[in-house]
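Internal QA ticket QA-208
Title: Verify multi-chain structure generation after dependency bump
Assignee: T.L.

Test input:
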Amino acid sequence: MAPLDKKEEYGAFDNVDEVFKIPTLECGAMADTHTFEAAPEHNEALHFPGELLDNWQEVAIAKMGELAKTNRAFQVYLDACVKCGACTDKCHYFIGTGDPKNMPVARQDLLRSVYRRYYTFAGKYFPWLVGARDLTKEVLDEWYTYYHQCSQCRRCSVACPYGIDTAEISMAAREIMDSVGVGQKYCNEIIAKLKKTGNNLGLNPKALRATLEDLEEDLEDETGIEVKLPLDVKGADILLITPSADFFAEPHIDGLLGYAKVFHAAGVSWTMSSYASEAANFGMFIGSYENMREVSWRIRQAAKDLGVKRIIFGECGHAWRVGYSFLNTLAGPFDFLDQNYPIPQHIMEFTSDAIDDGILKIDKSKNDEFIMTYHDSCNVARGSAMGRKEGGQFDLPRKVLKAVCNHFYDMDQDTIRENTFCCGGGGGLLTDDLMDLRIKGAKPRMTALQQVTTDHGVNKMAAICAICKTQFSKVMPKYGYEMDDIMSVHQLVANAVILDGQDAEEEQEAPEAAAEEEK
Amino acid sequence: MLSTLYAVLFYVATIILVVGTGMKVARYARTPAPLKIPVSPAPRTKRGVWFRMFREVAFFQSLFKSNRWIWIFAVLFHFGMLLVLLRHLRYFTQPVWWWVDLIQPIGVYASFAMLAGLGGLLLRRIVVPRIRYISNPSDYLMLALFLGIVLSGMSMKFLMPVDILGVKQFFLGLMRFQINELPTQPGVLIHLALVATLMIIFPISKLLHAPGVFFAPSRTQVDNARKFRHLSAWAKQLPPLPEGIPEPEEGK
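Actual output:
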C-alpha cells in the first residue's frame, strides 16, 4: 500500500462544486478491493456456517426468498426501482472511485439481477430483457467485493424518488452471504468478541476498570476535583452506554471525559456497565436481526441488573441508530425505566437540556483557538433523531457546539444535515484492509472541509460518531490535515465547562493538559 | 372477428392489470417491516407522513432535490399522462362528466408534454454514461412502448382522424359485456394493442413503482420508535433470550 503515503495521490477536489460533477466511469476500478473473510470460528459464533456450504447456491436463493417474505423493504425496493439514475452520483464511494458498481442503483442491481432470475416472471422467462442472471461463484464474489464497499449511509435513499435504501439491500446481501458461510472478518470477529467480553475491543472488566481509574486521575489532575467514571454501580440513576473506543482511542476519550464532566456538573448519579460496555451494534452492518437482538439484549440486562432509571448513549453514530430506532423493538419494552425520559436518550439531549437549564458553567473562550465545523454522521443524520423537534439530530449538536465555541461555520449545505457525506469508514468498513477505499470515500467530505478552511479558516471538525472519529484521524492526514483535527463534540464541551470548586489556576492549564493528552 | 379479438384482449389485460397488481399490493402490504427505518427528514406523526407522501407523489419532492433534469422530464411525462388519462375518461362515460369536458382542451396538449418528457428520459438514458450503464433492454423498451402509445394516440388526433365515436361505442359496450364493432383504422388498432400490452406487463415490470412508492418503509414509516414499540409478527415468535447476566467466564 505504498501510494497511501503520498498525499498527492488522494488530493481532494479543487472546488466543492466538483463534488457534484459527474465522475468519469472507470469500470472495474475497485474490483480487486476484497476485504478479508472471517475465520470459521467467528462465523460460527454468530450462528452462521463456518465455511462456504456445498449447497450454498440453494441456501442463498432460499434465503433471498425468505427475506422477501420477512422484510418489506427488501421486497418493495427490489421491485420498485425504475433506473431513473437520480441516485447514481450520490455515493461517496462512487464519487471517490468512479467505479460504476459503486453507484447505488448498480450496487442494488448486483442482487436485484439474481432475485429477478429466481423470483420474478420476467427474470425467469426473459432474463436477457431485464438483466437477470444466475447465481454463480463469480456473482457471489462480486457481491462480497461491492457489498463491502457500501457504508450503509443512506444518502442514496434520500435522493431516491421512492426512498429505495441501498443500505437495506447491502445488509440483506451480507446476511445472505453470512448464511452460506461467507462472512467479513472485521464485522464478524468483532461481534464474536462482543459476545464474549461485552465490547468490541475484547476488553475485560478488570482492564476496563483500570482504564477508567487512570482517566479519573487525569481528570483530577486537570480540574483539581474528583470527577468519577463509575463502573457497575448498582442503584445509579443513569446507565451510560458508550462505544468502547471512548475508553481507548483519541479523540474519543476526550468525549468520554466530557460526558463525565457534564454528569458531574448536573449532579446526577450514573454508571457504565462492564457487561454492556459497548454502544456499537455491528449486528446492523451484517443485516442480522438475531445478532443485533442479542447485542441489544445485553443493554437491557445491564440496565435491569444495575437497577438504573435511565439509559443514555454516548457519541456513536450507528449505535445511536440502533438505540433510537431499533432498541425498543429488539430489547423492549423498557417498562422498568423512568418513563419521563425518552428511552434511550442521547448524551447530546442531556447536555442540551443542561445548557438550557443553566446547569453548566461555560467559558467559551477556552475553545477560541478552534475554528469549528461539524460533520453530521450519516446514521445519526439519516437513521435517527434527537430532541423534541424534527431535525433535532442536526440542530442539537450544533446548538451545543455554538454554546461552547465562539467560532463555528457549517460546510456546504449539500454536504450536511440529511445530505451529509459518510466519513468513508461506516457500515463495517473501518478496517485497514479497506484503507484505499476509505481514503477515496472520504474525498467528498474532505473537499467540503477544505472549502470552509479556505473561506473561514476552519481548523477543526467535530463529530459524534466513534467510527467517524477513527476514520478521520486516519484519513485527514492524507488530505493535508493533522490527525487531531477531528474532535469529539463533548471534548469541546469538556474544554469549556467549569466545574464547581475548580480553581482558577488549574483552569488556565486545562487546554494544555488536553493537548498533552492527545499525544 | 377483429372486434372480438380486441374485446378478449382488453378483458384479459384488465384482469391481469387488476388482479396482478392487486396481488403485488397485497404482498407488499402483507410483508412485515421488522424495524423502523424512516429516512430523514422523517416526520414524527402520521399526519406528517401523509403530508410527506403527498409531496412525494404530487411534486416528486425527493427527485426535485436530487436531480433537476430527471425531475423536469418525469413531471412532464407523469402529469402529462395524468391529464391525458383523465381526458380519456370521455371514452368510457356517457354522458361525459362535466369536469372531463373542462380539461378536454388541456388534455389534448398534455400529450406534447408526455412526448417531451419521454424524449428527455430516453435521451438521458442513451447519452448519460451513468444511466446508460444501469439500463437494461427492458428500460429502453418501456420508453419505446410509451412513445408508441403517445405517438399512435397523437396521430389519431392530429394526423389521421379516426371514427372516435365508434371506438367509444366499443368500450362502452365492453363495460356492459357486449362486443360492438371496433373501427379498424391502423391508428386505433396499434394504439389499443400497445395499451393492452402495457396493462399486461404492469404487474411484472418496473411500473410497480407506482404502488411501490406507498409501501417503502423508509418514507412511509412514522419516526416514533422510542415512543411506541414496533414489533413484527415474526419477531414476536422468536424464542426469548435468557434473562439475567451470566457469571463471567474465568478470563485473564
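Spot checks passed. Residues 8-189 of chain A form one domain.
Status: verified.
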